[in-house]
Structures are given as C-alpha cells and as structure tokens.
Amino acid sequence: MKNNVNFYECMVEYRSLFKTKIGGVKLKSWRKVILLGMLILTVSINVSISYAVEDNGDYEHNYNLGQFHMGEGEFDLAIPFYLEAIEQQQDSYEAYMGLANTLLFAQRYEDLAIVTTEMISKFPWSSDSYMLRAQAYLAYQEYSLSKMDLIQAIKIDENNYNAHLVLGNTMREAGEYDEAIVSYKNALGDQNNRENVYMLIGETHARNNDLLTALNSFEKAIDVNPDSFLAHLKIASLYTLVQEYDIALGYYEKSSEIQSSEFIYVQMGAVHLMNKDVSSAVISFERAIAMDETNVELIHEIAATFMNYDEYSLTEKYLDRALKQDPENAGLLNGYAVSKNATGTL
Description:
Helix 3 (about 60-70) runs parallel beside helix 5, helix 15 (about 260-275) packs antiparallel against helix 16 and helix 18 packs antiparallel against helix 19 (about 330-340). The chain starts with a helix and ends with a helix. The chain has a domain at about 1-155: Tetratricopeptide repeat domain (Serine Threonine Protein Phosphatase 5, Tetratricopeptide repeat), CATH 1.25.40.10. It is about 70% helix and about 0% strand. By secondary structure, it is mostly helical.
C-alpha cells in the first residue's frame, strides 16, 4: 500500500508515555481483546482497540470496506473492517497496513504501537512497519525509540522517503537541528521538486535562529511551487521579525492573492501599525472584516491591536462596532473602559 506522504510530515502530538498493554492484556493477545469486545457494548473506542465486529463476508469485502471508510475519513468505521479482514487472513500485509495507517490518521498512537509491534514480528522485512511504529513513539516524545526504529527502517530500505522525513521530524522535535537537516536532505535525495521538504528545512533553520538560511529554503519552496501559500506566509513572518516591514507586506499580499483569509489581513494590519502607517492598517483590517462582518471576536481582536499601539480613538471605534452586535459582551465592555481610562475620558 502506498503511504500518504503529506500526512507523515506533520504528525507530531504530545501525550504521556503509553503502556505496553491494553486493558492489562499483553501485546500478542490484542486480537483476543477484540473478540471479547464483541460481547461488551459499553467498551470505549478511545481507550481500547476492541471493537464489536460482525461477520461481514469474505476478506476482500471487509478489506475494501476498510479502504472505503478510511478514504472517507471515517476512521472509527474503517477499523473494524480491517480487524475482521485480519482475522480472516492473519498474514495479510495490506490489511495490517490499512489498519496501521488508519490508526495513524486517527491519532490513536497507543493502538498504533501495539499493531505495528505485531507487524514487525510478522513482517520483519517491512521498512514501513518500523517507520509507522516510530510515529507512535514520536507522538509520545520517545525520541530515542523513534530514532532506533527509523534507522532500522532506513537500513531495510534506504530509499524510504517517509522514514527519512520522520527521522528529520524526530530530530527536530528533540532539538537536534543539524541531524534533522541531514535527514531532510536525505529525504530530498536527487529530487529538487519536493516543496514540503524545503518547507521543513526552512522551519528547522528558523527554529535554530538561522533566519537567512531559513529564508533561502522557503524561497526554494516557492521556486518549486510559485503559489505556495505557506512559503509566502513564512517569509512574510521572518521579514516582520527582522523589521523589514515593506518586504514582509509584499509577501503577505501575495499570500492573500493565493488564499485570502481574515488572518492574513489582520497580520497585514498589524505590520502596517509597526510601520507607523495607520491608514493602511485600517484598510487591511477592513478587508478582514469584509470577509465576515458578523465576527465579533475578529472586530474585538482588531480593536485590541489598535490599543496595543496606543491608537485609542480607533480602538473605541471598533469596540463600538462590536458592541452593536453583542452589547452584553464583558470583554468588549472591559476593553472600552480600559481605552477610556487610558485617554482620561472615562
């Protein structure tokens, strides 16, 4: 089964260290837990991998239904069909991969660790089995365990793009930025058209406060995809950070042309205020409001931004607009009082 490359590059979540059992049952007994779950109507799908499954026909029927529900993003519906398919063909690599990928998409990392551990025992030749278990370890910040599995995955298949990518993510989250860059470059290989890899390299350089190199990496992402919304946004943020406001605004404007949003226009308004261009800030903020004139929180945020730059008359103007829609909003009323107090007009 071909993996979804774009998903692996961003799956990083933090939870407490998972246990090696489900409900006190050892790893090799997980399928028995599933069958027992058929008799227990109150079992929680968020705690155990146990599901009540029915006899839904032959292996192909169950596997195909698992694939269908996974493709629809219906992970809780997909899992029982994969489990039934595995019961029918216990050495089906494709069914195990379908189940493991579904658990990964569903962010059920404890269950993923259990399933992939069994996969490794059944399919020791599978680079992806190690790579998927590494994802579970990474989610729980077990960087050394994740790294160990990923090195094994790459040893089995040095061309496993996802393994190099996840190893880069692991090293980056562990704060080992130089190693992360090496792994990302290995993922890039001789392919110079992987926008996502350039983005990850740029983000890693930015975390390491190497802003110039980060900018160069984001520019390479734009070379690959001139309409890369995120690359333009990242560059705009970096130029804002170094107070190159005019350049930043150019990239924000390009971002808005690619994908307009209230967020972009609010950011542009804030940069105009940093650049002491109040009239342009108002124009940007009005563009944001025009996208959703009933968004009280957005108008409140704009008012707060003006207050941060001591523009109290504009603060009160936007608070007035918000209060007309929500006159009992305590946050708005408090902001109005703070502004009035700052100007001595309370």
